[in-house]
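FIELD: query
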Amino acid sequence: MKKRSTVTLLAVLLLITVIVASIVAGTYARYANTVTATAANWSFTAGLNTPQVTSLNLYDTITDVATTYPNLTEDTIAPGTSGSFTVNLDGTGSEVGIKYTIGITLPSGEGVPTGLTFLVDGQAVSATGYEGYISLADLTDEDTSKGKVTKTVTWAWAIGDDAAATTGVDNGFDEFTGTINVSIRGEQHIGTITTT
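FIELD: result
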């Protein structure tokens, strides 16, 4: 009898397990959904001048150098010179907005020209760089040129009447050769576009 009641108890427990499993499986089947996500395409390229280059000589950016500065030695800059170059940004094909930063870093140490300034589209480049945006609306517009941005970087080596601008300009930079780093960084931007 004991064996029969154990078998009956096991059968009842098995039946309860089957019933509970079918209820849970039915509930799970009703509420389980497939969730899919598609990652946005990301595309960002940048370069200097047209055609794009990875480095340039500031001397080569002086407009009409032979006429403007006839007494300037080739491949050099001096107090009173200025020039410009372009930064080309292209986000064509990106499906997310782009925040870009253009940074300009002068070398450190003695002999670095003081008074050498850089502006991007007329705005001073801060220590953290010049920031701008290419909006998603521009990137997805039928006019694909809206996803391409050109920024003009102008530079000038000041010389003037005030003592601060001219201190040491004659001898302090003799034989100075240095690299000015221009960094261009693009990152995906999905937030609100802020302007300063």
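FIELD: remark
The radius of gyration is 33 Å.
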